[in-house]
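Technical note accompanying the year-one report. For the benefit of new consortium partners, we illustrate the data format agreed upon in the data management plan: each record pairs a sequence with a structure-token string. No post-processing was applied to the example shown here.
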Amino acid sequence: AYLAKYILKQITCEEVAAEDLKYYDEELWKSVEFIKSNPVQTYIGTFTTTRKDSFKNTSTTIALKERGDKESITEENKAEFVRLLCEYHLVESIKEQFEALHMGICSLIPKEAIRVLDSEELEFFLCGDHEISLIDWKENTRYKGVYHKSHPVIKWFWNILSKLSTSELEKFFQFCTGSVRVPIEGFKGLTSNNGKLCGFSIESKDYQNEELDFLVAHTCFNRIELPIYPCIEIMEKAIRKIISTPLCFQFAFE
């Protein structure tokens, strides 16, 4: 799991900015970027925004300042509008939830320690590293069944992963482990669902045919069952199918 940038910034007492809206509501962020990048020449609205309640399926119009519903957005005041909009959505609208989260984090990490960190350092400390080191992954992988580090299928496996883009590698890592970030300690710090250390492992699985044999991920134990593919092309096709499929629809994901 990970915390959005605007949450991390508040924990470290940094000001939120318009670009942080991208992690809150992408459509709202696009609207703000359009206002920032283009001169306001016609009426585009007032100093108000809409708060949606997905549980009640209702929406409420919120004035961003006193008599904001009476003040039109102009080229001269649009910077103020953007600032107030960000403050409302990223701070005021989640104030109650943030305070509960902040209290929980401070019960685990001393406030004195948090004060010396910026949002990026805190993100790394809480959520781990978003950069995946293939060298670290290989060095901290155990093999089961007929597999060993010099097995041809294993060599194909790492060769295919070395050709993936950063985002593709992240998605495949998530398929294998259920996590989106590598622990601070690296792959040696991977844990099972009960919190105990549980390194990544690859177990051999008999191969029958291309239509039936897929990689199976046991995310609770950071283990995958890798069929003994007859050639690298079939394995690469299987891995790329995993990457291109939304995780919630992956039938080989446990």
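Partners are asked to follow this layout when depositing records. Confidence is low (pLDDT under 50) at residues 248-254.
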